Amino acid sequence: MNFTTDSRHEELRQKVRALVEQHIAPIAMTLDEKSEFPEEFLNVMKENGLMGLPYAKEDGGAGEDVLAYAIAVEELSRVDGGVGVILSAHTSLGTYPIAAYGNEEQKKKYLYPLASGEKLGAFGLTEENAGSDAAETETTAVLEGDHYILNGKKIFITNAPYADTYVVFASTNPAKKTRGISAFIVEKGMEGFTFSDHYNKMGIRSSSTAELRFKNVKVPKENLLGLEGQGFKIAMSTLDGGRIGIAAQALGIAQGAFDEALAYAKEREQFGAPIAVNQGISFKLADMATKLEAARLLIYKAAEKKQNHEPYALNAAMAKMYASDIALEVCNDALQIFGGSGYLKGMGVERRYRDAKITTIYEGTNEIQRVVIASNLLGRLKKGSTAPAKAEANSNKAEAGKAAPAGVQMIDEATLADSVKKLASILKAQFDFSNKEDIDIPIASAKKIIGIGQGAMNRENAARAIDNAKALGMAIGGSRPAAEVHHFIAMDRFIGMSGQKANADLYIACGISGSKMHMKGLDNVKTIVAINTDPDAPIFKDAAYGIVGDMNEVLDLLEAELCGKSDNDDNGGLYQCTLCGYIYDPVIGDPESGIAPGTSFAALPDDWTCPICGAKKEDFIPFGKDGQK
Ligand code: CAA
């Protein structure tokens, strides 16, 4: 180790610094404020050969070394940590596994476009139940003929949904645990492969992070990366390299904060002199600079060892852990030097303070880095002797008052109306619907809640569900995205880990998929009823009763059953066809189709169609509720 960079590295540093100062620095505040992905800057990086720095020229890369790549991430992050991670996730996580484990065909088809910057890459490992414990992957891949069929969900995926190529880990043999996990190259656009909205994050807001959803995605068997069962090792070895990138990102963020604080300390005068003359400030700066230098040496050493094909997992973990830990300290000190001004939105140091935090969390929390470092020092220790087994943990949970879910009773009668009738009779026997609550009673004290999720699709459907809640005398609540992203419900009504905790006896989850974050808010709820069009929605696992169907239809029918009247009594139960304008009147019914007078719209059979134009039931909306009466 030379403990120095050569002139080529320093030229690259100057080049990246100039590019990011020119293109990103002026808009960094806006990207952060609007959580906007800098798509145009990807072209700048591509044109300047930054998207495949450590890959060979014949593979589409720039033919530089791992250190050059680390320097590029550091310099991007010095201005904007979000931009730094776009390059890091693309290079280390999306591209590396294909470069290292891909066969010639895969390299030609996928590596070249990634390394040359034609395509953007991403890595899909993390799941709701497989974060630090990556071996708990629940996504499955089943070989059927010439394809693997992928089902499952990945969360917190950097560069999604903008990335084109995803290296995804799925279990091909769950019984074999880590040795049953395989890696696949999955392309955006494959049927059944969809994304969630991009998360609203605390920091690195110019990067994009979203969920990947796989529903019977047919991945050609040629897209298996490496061998079946080799996926966990591919993931682990990829993360070893990824950690160099995140360490460089942390260093860059902290360096940016330090540079600003140093300049400010020389400019800002108090007590008749620049604040830097006070040892309280100058010693802080001395400590900050020392930590940055130490982090830089750890990172560059790990990069050099990787480049020389020496074992480097230990060095990468040390670099990631140390650089991210000190990034928080340096950003904190930088903000302290700025005083009250640093606390204001729009200040670079405020943004960096938020950006730095993620670096101690992703690509392996710093606790996991310590596990990796310790196991490199001590060898792999025997597992399971101290950790309670899952079953034991469940029984502990039950003793603490929360029973493990007993299993959902799916209600699936001949028609949806029959299913709802059955559900209504179950609910009537257990809950008192004559005791009506206000719709906006505080979440914590509501006894019966209708929860709305993203499955409501639009505000009109959500408004219909809110009308049902009013009629049923239930409070309204829902998921965070339903409140924050789609504004279906007010922000003070969302339930979940980051929202409020419900203590209701009954929660009717409508169009809610059942993410862990939301379910955390339902820990104290006694009975969950799930209504979802997706029979595989995870919410069904936690519910007592479930109906697969459209939430609005189910709620209309439920209201009719439980309130003993039409869902739309306030306007005579009239519904209008949105295609031809025909109005269904329950007083008249639809005798030509065998619908007797007195039949509410909700009670019409599922396959009933408009007698004028043949439109389906779902094409009708309540007449008079949308201002058209
Ligand atoms: N390289 C190659 N193989 C490795 C390896 C490595 N670095 N580490 C472990 N393995 C192998 C082991 O040799 C073992 O192989 P055998 O079955 O043949 O013996 C196998 O993998 C299982 O090893 P362990 O028993 O040690 O695995 P474990 O289940 O105890 O997990 C862990 C170890 C280190 C905790 C691992 O789960 C881990 O790294 N967790 C953190 C996950 C993580 O970093 N996630 C980040 C997601 S990506 C991200 O965050 C990106 C972003 O947003 C930017």
What features would you describe in this structure?
It contains 18 helices and 19 strands. The chain has helices spanning 7-23, 28-34, 39-47, 66-79, 81-101, 104-115, 231-267, 279-307, 313-338, 348-357, 366-378, 390-399, 416-430, 459-472, 480-485, 516-520, 539-542, 551-563; strands spanning 121-124, 140-144, 147-158, 165-171, 181-187, 193-195, 209-220, 224-225, 269-270, 273-274, 409-410, 448-452, 475-478, 506-510, 527-532, 545-548, 575-577, 583-584, 620-622. The strands form five sheets. The chain has a six-stranded parallel beta sheet. Strands 1-4-5-8 form a four-stranded mixed beta sheet. Strands 2-3-7-6 form a four-stranded antiparallel beta sheet, with helices on one face. Strand 14 (506-510), helix 16 (516-520) and strand 15 (527-532) form a beta-alpha-beta unit. The longest helix is centred in the middle third of the chain and has 37 residues, at 231-267. The protein is globular, with a radius of gyration of 28 Å. 49% of the residues are buried. The model is unreliable at 385-404 (pLDDT under 50). The structure holds acetoacetyl-coenzyme A (CAA).
Task: Give the structure's gist in a few sentences.
The protein is an alpha/beta fold and 629 residues long. It has helices at 7-23, 28-34, 39-47, 66-79, 81-101, 104-115, 231-267, 279-307, 313-338, 348-357, 366-378, 390-399, 416-430, 459-472, 480-485, 516-520, 539-542, 551-563, and strands at residues 121-124, 140-144, 147-158, 165-171, 181-187, 193-195, 209-220, 224-225, 269-270, 273-274, 409-410, 448-452, 475-478, 506-510, 527-532, 545-548, 575-577, 583-584, 620-622.
